[in-house]
Structure prediction request, 325 residues.
Amino acid sequence: MKPRVYVTRIIPEDILDLLRSECEVKIWPEENIPVPREVLKKEITDVKGVFCLLTENFDADLISSAKELKIISNMAVGYNNIDVSAATNRGIMVTNTPGVLTETTADLTFALLMMTARRMGEAEQYLRRGEWRTWSPLLLAGQDIHNSTLGIIGLGRIGESLVKRAKGFDMNVMYYSRTRREEKERDLGIQYRELNELLKESDFVCVMTPYSEETKNLIDLPELKLMKRKAILINTARGGIVNEMALYEALKNGLILAAGLDVFEHEPVSINNPLLSLPNVVVLPHIGSASVNTRRRMALTAVNNLIQGLSGKLPDNLVNKEALK
Ligand code: DGY
Prediction:
C-alpha cells in the first residue's frame, strides 16, 4: 500500500504526478489561500508525510496531532515555520530545499537594492500618476550603487551569490557571520567585520541570515543608530530579524535613508503596517525565489525529499539527522 501524504498547496501537475506514483496524495485545493490550521490538523492525523510551505506553522501542538507522521518536507530553504526539535523528539524527519533557489534569490536581492537606491518604485508611480512635467536635475535622484560599500549579514549560499553581483558593480564588500570564513574572504575578495563595525561602514546593509531565536531582532534601534544616515537596509531573509517598529522609527526620523523589504514579521503584511506609509520603503510580497523555473525546482526537490524519506532512504536535504536515532 502506498503511504498517504498531504500536500498543503497546488504544485505543478507533472511534479504532483511524480509524487502520486509513489504515494496516495491528498491536496489542499486552494491556490491563494493557505490551509486553515484546523483543517490541516485533521488532514494530517493519519498521514505518513506532509509537503508544506513556509505559510504552515508546524509547532509542537500541530506536530503532536500527526500520530503516523514520518517526514515534513518544506518547500523552502528556511524552516523556521517548523519546530524542528519537536519533530526530532517524535522521530519525524524535516527537509528543506537549499541550493536550487540561491541564484534567483540573489538576483531579487540585488534588484531590490537597486530599486531602493534609485527610487524606482517611487519613480514609476510618479510617472503613472501623470506628474512628470519635465526633466529636472534633482528629480527622483537616488544613491549610487557602484563604488559603494555593501555589508552582508550572513554569508551563506545566497550571501555568497550576492557578492558576485556586487563585484560586478565594483562594490567594496564586507560581511559579518557567526563563523569567520577566511578562505572565502580570499576567494571572493571580501573583508570580515564585527556586526557593529559593518553597520557603521556600509552604504548598503543586506540581511541574509536564517531566522532563529539568536537572530530575532538582530537589527533593532541601537543597531540602526549605528548605520550611516545615507545607508539603505535590505531584507530578503526573514522579517523577524529586523525589529519593524524600530525600523519605522529609524526611517521616519532620518536615522537611515531607506529600506527594501521582501519579508515581514507577519505575512501577508497588513496594509496598515506603518512601514507601508513611508515613501522611502520599497515593499515586495516575499518573492525572493519566485521565478517559474526556481519554484518548479523547489517543488521537485521537496517531492524528492518526501519520496526518499518515505521509501526508507536518507532524504537529500534532511535537516535533523538526530530524528533517525
Ligand atoms: C525560503 O526558501 O526560505 C524563501 O524564503 C522562499 O523561497
Q: What stands out?
A: The pocket of (2R)-2,3-dihydroxypropanoic acid is lined by residues 54, 76-78, 101, 288-289 (CB under 6 Å). The domain at 4-100+292-324 is CATH 3.40.50.720 (Rossmann fold). The chain has two domains: 4-100+292-324, 102-283.
